[in-house]
Write a structure and sequence with these properties.
This protein has helices at about 50-60, 80-90, 105-110, 125-135, 150-165, 180-200, 210-215, 235-240, 275-290, 330-335, and strands at about 10-20, 25-35, 40-45, 65-70, 75, 90, 170-175, 200-205, 220-225, 230, 250-255, 260, 270-275, 290-295, 300-305, 315-320, 320-325. The protein is elongated and about 85 Å long. Helix 4 crosses helix 5 (about 150-165). The protein starts with 7 loop residues before the first strand and ends with a helix. It has about 350 residues and is of the alpha/beta class. It folds into 2 domains: about 10-255, P-loop containing nucleotide triphosphate hydrolases (Rossmann fold); about 270-335, no CATH class. The strands form 4 sheets. It has a 6-stranded mixed sheet with strand order 6-7-8-3-9-10, with helices on both faces. It contains 10 helices and 17 strands.
């Protein structure tokens, strides 16, 4: 077993798919090359069916990979025993655990399995680690509560606590924010950041929450149909990889804002003046509805956003007429004739 320290992982020319080494496998992807280092939070992204979950399951040993290699600190994963691997890598899946009468403490305690004896008996030291893991995810008040009686967000934090109790330098997570509301998504991302920054764990997670990942991840692993890319989120934008994630021609990517949008047929030209946050959200509203926002070209109408007196108003100027509105919604209703 290698000593604890600065961990890095290397994936070289890996082929993944279904089956096993003894039979003819169905190869899903070939030539996968990725790296990650200690203290990094890595987002694995790609369209549905491209192989994200298969890759993660192959890395943690739940299924075979068929070509290439996976190494930790330069040592092939195949050189480690099952117990050694369990002390190096933990995994949080998308599966929702619903076991009657299992308390949060019991679920998290399963993370200590690589360190217990044949009878699975936990020691006082194990209990300290379990309680610390529960504290790290903010579930102290729910330690004895059945997992069937907590929310999806709380259950996901309990699953991450189980990985923490396993005390591994590397954590893989498959869609950790799936099915969570916005607040819980950000809480989970923040928790993963803390684990990477403060505990210097290598965190690799698959996700479809691209806007959050773009803001929070240190590195992207991108699985495209016929190629892979790794680099910072900013590199991914500048290299045009975000456009390749979707085959739908009606979806575009705004390089300046870092967001996806639906392409629309342009409507009238509008010139918008103002400042600060109200101006920004006014621009977004008109963009959303497909108006052409111009600076120098002749507009069909103008909008001025006034926020100087602590009350936001919108003045619409069209030909010789002027109208004032107390909200963006009412102004847009007027423009659309509703």
């Amino acid at each position: 077993m290698m000593g604890q320290g600065r961990f890095n992982i290397t994936i070289r020319n890996m082929a993944i798919g279904f089956g096993n080494q003894a039979s003819e496998p169905v190869i899903l992807r070939k030539g996968i090359n990725f790296t990650a280092f200690h203290g990094e939070m890595v987002a694995l992204i790609g369209s549905n069916g491209v192989g994200k979950s298969t890759l993660l399951r192959s890395l943690v040993g739940f299924q075979d990979f068929f070509e290439g290699g996976f190494a930790i600190n330069g040592t092939s994963i195949k050189e480690f025993s099952a117990r050694e691997k369990a002390r190096l890598i933990s995994f949080v899946s998308t599966e929702i655990v619903r076991v009657a009468n299992m308390a949060v403490f019991d679920l998290v305690a399963y993370g200590r399995f690589p360190y217990t004896n044949w009878f699975g008996k936990i020691t006082g030291r194990d209990r300290e680690i379990i309680y610390k893991a529960i504290e790290n995810v903010g579930l102290q008040e729910l330690t004895g509560k059945p997992i069937t009686q907590i929310s999806d967000g709380e259950r996901q934090r309990a699953m991450i606590a189980r990985a923490l109790a396993q005390d591994t330098p590397i954590i893989f997570l498959d869609e950790p924010t799936a099915f969570l509301d916005v607040s819980n998504k950000y809480e989970i991302f923040h928790l993963l950041q803390v684990l990477a920054r403060k505990q210097e764990k290598t965190i690799v997670f698959s996700t479809h929450d691209l806007n959050i990942a773009l803001r929070e991840a240190d590195k992207f692993w991108i699985l495209l149909e016929n190629e892979t890319f790794e680099g910072s989120p900013e590199d991914s934008v500048l290299n045009g990889n975000f456009e390749k994630l979707f085959s739908n021609k009606n979806i575009g990517f705004d390089h300046f804002e870092g967001e996806y949008f639906f392409k629309k047929e342009f409507r009238e030209k509008v010139k918008i003046a103002g400042e600060g946050i109200p101006l920004n959200w006014t621009l977004r509203a008109f963009n959303r509805l497909g108006y052409q926002i111009v600076m120098d070209a002749q507009p069909d109408f103008e909008v001025h956003v006034d926020n100087r007196r602590g009350k936001i108003t919108w003045t619409l100027k069209h030909l010789e007429s002027r109208m004032m509105f107390p909200s963006i919604y009412e102004m847009l209703q007027y423009l659309q004739g509703d």
